[in-house]
Amino acid sequence: MLRHTRKRTGTDFVEPELPITPMLDMSFQLLAFFILTFKPAPTEGQIMLSLPKEDGGGQGAPSPAVADAPVHYIVRVLATDDGDIGQMTLSQEGSAAEPKELKSGLHKRPDGSDMSMLEVYQKELSDREPQKQPMKLTLELPPRLSQDNVVRLVDTGTSAGFTDISPVPIDKKNR
């Protein structure tokens, strides 16, 4: 018998040419990005505890909770045409009371003369009861108020004990 042998035509193994180095570079860049931007979720069921400072443990009376929000006063200033202080109102944010208008003729100096608007403002701020938490003061100022008066208003607020003073322009729609 004849054996028929078939000659196999061999094909050489062809390796695909994929550039692996740029892919590895990109994977390490992504890894670094994810590591740097990872923010773990807060622990569920975490309980914030306020432990007593005294040696007696919980035997002492609990101290009353102090509000974290600062007391916020708002002073609205209206200017005259020459840049001086014309009218001022003082109000406390969140208070049901009407804003108090500060007038120079209502308060007298020890010698009997009328106090200036700046002196009335200083007296009203210093007459506020001292607070345990920080006090915030917002000065709503018109654009035509002179810079000298703005600096005096801020200095007076600082000397009255306000820790956060924000001069802001008065909105045109609220004038």
UniProtKB/TrEMBL annotation:
Pfam families: ExbD (PF02472). Residues 98-112 have a biased composition (Basic and acidic residues). Keywords: Cell membrane, Membrane, Protein transport, Transmembrane, Transmembrane helix, Transport. GO terms for cellular component: plasma membrane. Residues 91-113 are annotated as: Disordered. GO terms for biological process: protein transport. It is found in: Cell membrane. GO terms for molecular function: transmembrane transporter activity. It comes from the Bacteria. The keyword Transmembrane helix applies. It is a single-pass membrane protein; Single-pass type II membrane protein. Belongs to the ExbD/TolR family. This is Biopolymer transporter ExbD.
